[in-house]
Amino acid sequence: MAAPTSPPGPAADLELGSAPPMPDHGHGVGGATVAHLRRGAESMVRQGEAALHHGESAMHTVGTVERGLRTLTERKRYSPRHWLMVLGGLVILLVCGVVVAGRFSPPVSPFTATSASGRLPDPLHAATCRPYQAEAGEQCVLPAGDPLLRGLSAGRDLTFHVRTLPPGTVEATVERWRAAARAIVADGDVFAAVGPSATVLYADTGTGLALETGAFDGEHSARSFLERSGLLGQDDS
Predict the structure, then answer these.
(1) What is the DSSP string of 42-100?
(2) What's the pLDDT score for residue 94?
(3) Residue 150 forms beta bridges with which residues?
(4) What are the φ and ψ backbone dihedral angles of 202, each rounded to 5 degrees?
(5) Facing residues of 190 across strands?
(6) Phi, psi values for residue 162, rounded to 5°
(7) SS3 for 165?
């Protein structure tokens, strides 16, 4: 005779069925961790993009500075103040050279045909002449020992200024000399006079040649100089 079976009940259900599911606490913890990692990764990406942007800006700035330095080196090696100082130094050297050359240059020959002194009569060719910067023309010195000055200059050298005046100017010069003259010796195409300080004033209105001397020891000596020098005997050519 078969043994009786136990009626179905809770115990059988428990024995035959699967165990009840356990609460899945691990699922919640893992999701939070993933979310945290994702946020961290996104933050790192954003920081990387920002760093890349700043890096590009920095590289652009470095490139600009590099180009500026290259331009400064190639085209503007020195500042404008430096070049002004260099230019000023060159000008000073040039001026000094001109002054030194003028002071130590040899005398200009009085026989140069194109010079005013070259047109003087022969007795005055013993004078040493130099260009005269204060006025156009030449400044000449006749030594005291020259026979022309014997008894006329009290043993002193005679300095005189000779130049060629342009048309119009010579007439005005003669008018001024005529008004101030102490004595007029000749007054035609050739004007000759003794000035207030016993100087000789001479002008050839045809050629424009004009001569003015330093002071003699008196009017008689000035007149004698005009006669001895040959100035009164020059023709109008």
Answers:
(1) HHHHHHHHHHHHHHHHHHHHHHHHHHHHHHHHHT-SS-HHHHHHHHHHHHHHHHHHHHH
(2) 76
(3) none
(4) -140, 140
(5) 204
(6) -130, 140
(7) coil
